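Loading example: each entry is read as two labelled lines plus one structure line.
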Amino acid sequence: MPAIHRGLAPATAFFALALTSGLVGPSSAAALEGNAERGKEIYHACEDCHTIDDNDVGPKHRGVVGRRAGSVPDYAYSPELKSSGIIWTEQALNRWLQNPQAMVPGTRMAFQLEDPQARADVIAFLKQYAKIEK
Amino acid sequence: MIEPDETPHHDADGIDRRGFLECMSWAGTGLLWSVSAGIPAALTMAKAAAAAPATTPFSFVQISDSHLGFKRPANTDVVATLQAAIARVKALPVKPAFMIHTGDISHLSHADEFDAADQLIGEAGLPVFYVPGEHDVLDADKGKAYLDRYGKGSQGSGWYSFDHSGVHYIALVNVQNIGEGGLGRIGRDQLDWLAKDVSGLSSETPIVVFAHIPLWMVYPSWGWGTDDGGQALDVLKRFGSLTVLNGHIHQVMQKVEGNVSFHTARSTAFAQPAPGTAPTPGPMVVPAGTLRQHLGIAEVNFVRGSEPLAIVDTPLGA
């Protein structure tokens, strides 16, 4: 089972997940092939703050891949993320999941997914299950 | 750090470790703190109800993590469970002097959530001293909504102190600028204020510190600790009686180190897993039909039959 590093609140997640696949290497996940089904399991760790279709502690994930950061209506983003100009490409999501506070200092999210393969899997899950079209 | 599979044994303080760990998986309502000769001592609500009034010359209540607005399966009616907690406070035989709420009043920092909490908590008819949880500073202005409502007379992001019946109370904020890994952070400005705040106090003054995230490292890999909490404790180490009250982890844990007693309170909203017993922290769904038991009423029965917890809840410094 993946180990996690919390990011947001523990009642709802602010911490980090360190998976134990043996893979190390911070930025290699984007080059890895993700497994959406495995990503679906790993995504449970995200669900303290996020869901696919509802804003909660974090914004909803429907359509997140390719979306501009800070653009979901009715969600109170931190000023830092809202003004970041980030487009959530797979590469950007990989950096974000590795260490969001290093990518956007001041953002609320502190959840970290340390294993590159786990990040690739979650991104694959988001691509497959969080498409704009239901 | 707690080892969940530790063989049960009685430590020198008389605490049965297995009993303690089982306790940690329960959530509850609140704690009554009595202050006798300057030494705070926690009583569960059941024990408090049974206590002779004359034995508690002064008391206050701690509640925590009410999460108004939370609607997930771990508790779909956090209003009802907060009401149950407040009902227990109102039923105490001796009216407490005040109540402290150690944060996560709301779930998403929405005005209607704070409104609902204020209405419910106000029914206790007690002065209430708050500190914010990270869920109370989720607005775009990172805590302005909290400060506008609860921050009158406070400094910085909401820290303050006050005195009551010879005890000095310090409310700290450790949910702003949460660091990598989710650990709480007090910050230099607040630490400097803390040093000034206590500089004129006699070392014999009993100190009660309260903040949302535990000041001690309960379980760092889940973000259950404060990365500069040790610096705050260094400032306060000269005091003969120091009691640290926190929330955030939705379960009772207590540790005693010398003159310092650390205590975390239960939530009024939902349970969280004991450290290391789940892949992640977060709202824990309990078996259907048992939520109220886990959230307090039956939890009190459990405590009533468990002397170890009562011992855990008795701070040292004495």
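Chain B touches chain A through 34 residues (CB under 8 Å).
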